[in-house]
Amino acid sequence: MDLDENASFQLANWTVVTIPEAISAVKNDNVNEKINTIEAMRNPNNCWITEQDIMSKYTVQPGERFAYFSTFLCQAFDVHPPLFYLVIKTICSLVPSLNLLIVGYIINITFLLLACYFIYKIGLILFDDNSWGALAAVLYYGLSFDFVNNATFYRMYAILTFWFVFLLYNTLKWANDGYADDKKVIRKLCIIEALAMYTQYFAVFFIFPMFVLNLVFMIIKKIKIRRYLKYNIITGLIYLLVWPFSIVHILFTDRGADVKGNLNALNIFGRLYEYKDNLFRSIFSGSKKYFLLFAVVAICYIAYRLIKHKFIEKDVKMWIGSIHFLDIVYVFGSAIAYYVVAAVAAPWAIDRYVMPAMPVLSLIITFIIIQMMSVVIKNKYITSGIMCLLIIALCLHWHQRVQPYYLFNSKDRVEYKKTCYNYDGVVIDSKTIRLLGDIELNYKHPKLYVTDEVNYYNLDSVLDDNKTYMVYMNKDIDNDEVISTLESKGFKLVKNDCEADHFYIYTLN
């Protein structure tokens, strides 16, 4: 698992403090002492830790089931909202013995399948009840590289993907019903918005575009916006009351500063260029040629629609005023707006931040290709069938070219994991940036001795001369100096072909 994925389970399941302990710490004015104790437990140093010690930080222990206070508190000190972690805690509390990998798959696949279902429902709206076209859109995303990558990444982005699609579907339904002044419908929209924001703050990048589109179309159609505005304001206030830490996370943390700095820089074209390879892999089968071909088809589609309505049917005003055009604006506008803003705002140009847009972008791609085919081929079954064949070909193509990032099943790593449990491990971490979580769940040992670049000198008094150990050295420290020092003490180190994400691995005799 990725370091962040390991943190997902630790932040969700590790009971660092109970409510009585927290009250006692406040009453006795020893909050800082309690925080220091927790930090020492999270990052032990110069000591042995057993597999049981490690798992107690990542799994729900007896007596800790459904203990949400600690999960909530951990997220208050983190930079993410709590919903994803509460979902993990719930599943692990229901089935404490369940393998953590299975927990991650259950969450991700459940929410992504729900997203696919609502992509199908949106497809029915966009394709005028052509179920074959809607099904093709689901297949396009479901067989894409991005679906697999999202499903195997144990973070909150599969849930966020679902909220995006679910909010879009319900917004389209409301728009198609003429923005009815219905309390239940507007409340539902607001609840979805709140849940999305309790999942990841980037949710605002799809909530806000849909909010603006709703207001614009309501004003154009001379529909009262008072209740919609009122309910959204109330939702925002309730959100802040329940999760006031969001203000600190967004405005007063390094992560928030990174996002604000990127948005202020507004390097749109530069960031989109950085993301181009990710986009090719995610939903264009890893093929730049296919992306360019689709771009040509998309331009032809836009030109065709303009020519058709401007010069042939001469009904531009009627077309722009139609419900179907409104649906296209919502689908295209929300997906493109989220993708662009998320790419610009992302602290790092990595795939997770744009994952939520991929199902809707897949729908857009399918829609454009089928619409262009239908200009020549009038039978919807034939056009949808051709599209499905194209999707299968694309799926086979990316399987041959690219490997999902988050499976972590390279041959050398798989082989190493088969034998590493036969030895105790030694972790020589950085003194300042502790990355022990990269080792704890990924490489199982009967026990680990944890030290750092400053305190490793006493290893000769800690380790047994007659035993072999696997040593993990943080890549950010001076490995050559550490090796030289250890060899001067009589140790022999051989570098392993396998590497952890943040550590080099050595065999020590």
Give the overall shape, derived from the CA principal axes: globular
Q: Between the first and last Cα atoms, what is the distance in angstroms?
A: 28 Å
Rg calculated over all Cα atoms: 26 Å
The helix content is 55-70%
Strand order of the largest sheet: 1-3-2-4-6-5
Main structural class: alpha/beta
Largest sheet features = 6 strands, mixed
Describe this structure in words.
The protein has 509 residues and is an alpha/beta fold. The protein has helices at residues 3-13, 19-27, 31-42, 51-58, 68-76, 83-94, 100-126, 131-142, 145-151, 157-176, 183-197, 204-220, 226-242, 245-251, 254-265, 268-274, 276-283, 288-312, 316-320, 323-345, 358-376, 380-401, 411-419, 437-440, 459-462, 479-488, and strands spanning 47-50, 424-429, 447-452, 469-474, 493-499, 503-508. It has a 6-stranded mixed β-sheet with strand order 1-3-2-4-6-5. The chain is globular. The mean pLDDT is 93.
